[in-house]
Amino acid sequence: MKQKLFFHDVLILAASIILAVLLVKTGALSQLLISAGHGQYLGSFVAGLFFTSVFTTAPAIVALGQIAALHTVILTAFFGAIGAMLGDILIFRFIRDRFSEHLLDVVSHNTAAKRVGAIFHRRSFRLFSFFLGGMIIASPLPDELGIGLLGMTHLKMRRFVPLSFVCNFIGIVLIGLAAQALA
């Protein structure tokens, strides 16, 4: 059963990679973000949705920077963070349990790996993962990495949602301020 779930996860990941590459290569993503950017709130929200994925982060950063340079940084960050939070929720629901389950399954096969696996259950590891995961979500790095770390700590959705919003808000504010300084 675990092999079937792993294969299913790989297929979904491959399909999302192919779709993201097609969106970027054809320019469809850029056009969508530019057209949505004419309305500050909708443009920020849509760009925020795309801010979460490794394959769409770069055009989303450009769009958020352009919107923030023309409008208010705080409102751009607010609506962008809402979009990013929704994107993160989708990723979190997919990654949270399966990622940690796959990792713990690999770790459980030998004694040395069991010792390494014991590290994952320490409180200090959970606190470090919580901090590092939040930092990754706030940065232009792909949110999948931060969400994977948070998933290993078995973070509950009710705690993940505000964390995602705050981290994305901070990240988008920093992008907006940099864009305004460069404009």
Write structural notes for this entry.
With 183 residues, the protein is mainly alpha-helical. The chain has one domain (26-182). 85% of the residues lie in helices and 0% in strands. It has 9 helices and no strands. It has helices at residues 2-25, 28-37, 40-50, 57-70, 73-107, 111-119, 123-138, 143-152, 157-182. The protein is globular. It starts with a helix and ends with a helix. The mean pLDDT is 76.
Short summary:
The protein is mainly α and 183 residues long. Helix content is 85%, strand content 0%.
* Gap from first CA to last CA: 54 Å
What class do helices, strands and sheet pairing give?
A: mainly alpha
String of helices and strands = HHHHHHHHH
General form: globular
Question: How would you sum up the major sheet?
Answer: none
* Radius of gyration from the alpha-carbon trace, in angstroms: 18 Å
Strand content: under 5%
Low-pLDDT ranges? none
Overall mean pLDDT: 76
The total count of helices amounts to: 9
**Strand elements, count:** 0
Percent helix: over 70%
Total domains, how many? 1
Please give a handful of descriptors for the protein shown:
183 residues, mainly alpha, 85% helix, globular
Topology, element by element:
Elements: H1 2-25, H2 28-37, H3 40-50, H4 57-70, H5 73-107, H6 111-119, H7 123-138, H8 143-152, H9 157-182
Helix pairs in contact: 2-3, 2-4, 3-4, 3-5, 4-5, 4-9, 5-8, 5-9, 7-8, 7-9
